[in-house]
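hey team, just a heads up i'm posting the complex here instead of the shared drive bc the drive is being weird again. everything in one block, sequence lines first with there labels, then the predicted structure for the whole assembly after. its four chains so it's a bit long, scroll down
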Amino acid sequence: MTTTMDGDRSGVPPLTKGERTRRRIMDSALELFGERGYTSVSLRDVAARAAITHAGLLHYFSGKDDLLITVMIDRDKQEIIALQEHIEQLSRRDGRPWTVDDVGLSWLVGQIAANQRRPDLAPLYVKLSAEATEPSHPAHNYFRKRYARLRRTLTGSMARAFATADPPVTGHDPVAAAAQVIALADGLQIQWVLDPDSVDMVASLLGYLRMLGIDPDGWALADEAAG
Amino acid sequence: MTTTMDGDRSGVPPLTKGERTRRRIMDSALELFGERGYTSVSLRDVAARAAITHAGLLHYFSGKDDLLITVMIDRDKQEIIALQEHIEQLSRRDGRPWTVDDVGLSWLVGQIAANQRRPDLAPLYVKLSAEATEPSHPAHNYFRKRYARLRRTLTGSMARAFATADPPVTGHDPVAAAAQVIALADGLQIQWVLDPDSVDMVASLLGYLRMLGIDPDGWALADEAAG
DNA sequence: CGCGTTATCTACCATGCGGTAGATTCTACG
DNA sequence: CGTAGAATCTACCGCATGGTAGATAACGCG
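-- predicted structure starts here --
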């Protein structure tokens, strides 16, 4: 259900047994949190999916909260790595150094497209970000920071897209547009997860960007999934 | 914390004791679900806020699920009534029969504005709609229907707004635009609930509508709250 | 006022929870 | 191959949960 046990790539880090188990736990946790949210998933649930006892799980994580934030931060790292690799790949292909500002928007759309095809992560973020709204939630601060970071990054991308559009876009505020495109992506995912036929997330996002004066038609949408 | 006990309006239905208790329970439930979501609120929590025992609560509702959907459907009824009253009031004022299509969009914006001022309902819908994403959730079907209804209603409003705009808007699909404006409202609320200073929901919504070619400047935004 | 109905309480149940303690099995390295 | 240390298990704790049973208290109508 998660990953095969012996899929070790040629030799470099032989990955001790404990590390493998830890990974298995984190994979299971990510799946289950996506399926049913944080609060209603028990440590025993996660442990069972990882073929372990819940006491065994607690050998690796100090508690349920620890498991959650560890998993989320790990997701972030993978996301950032994937984005950087994508940028490097593009730069190599075009013999030109692309930046985050250049590819941020197309990356966002690519992520949504990936979610729409292999629907694992969308429910995770939909459920968790809503739960984490409560200040006492263990992931509250994580999500505040995540959204702040996302807005910052996309503000840069938006400004860049405005500047390089043909004709250049002058009437819109990149800060507001960044928050708006994030909101749109989130809201679309809610409707889509509730009823996948009700809405075409990618088309809607691209339409929105075109409305802003940005032309996404030439984008090579990042096709690979996120991690 | 909820309503005062003797706020009975002049006489018509003297409201039996049981009915009053039932109302008190529903009010408490709505508050708590908004504060902490459905799953993590216990019947004892709700009962305590309603100054009753959890067993006493179960005299009125057959179970936790029953309580949830009863409360949500009740909210819907109040929402619809408030909308109709708003329409009638406008029609009386202008001596002209307004319809839902005429006021739908301004109503939506008014609701968001109300949420932004008195932040009770926004967290409720943010948390519940995310939880209800899971098909086994007791409110899953409720939310599917709610969103479908919302899209239908706003599609009409959108078409009307496009037609009556100056100049009339031709390039946009009312169906897609309806889903988009709902998504935008939802997504903005997530960011706003997480960090109220991060985003101006009303300004963002109005900006979006203007971008569509709709001019909301003349709207008399519905100022009163919803329930 | 009397009394049936309704509302509410106390007490209980089985279940599942997060977390801990300590015994036991397995791993991997010298 | 032996053994220290890591990994994992069994067993338990206290607590909260949703729900039930039945006794008791309050209401409100005749």
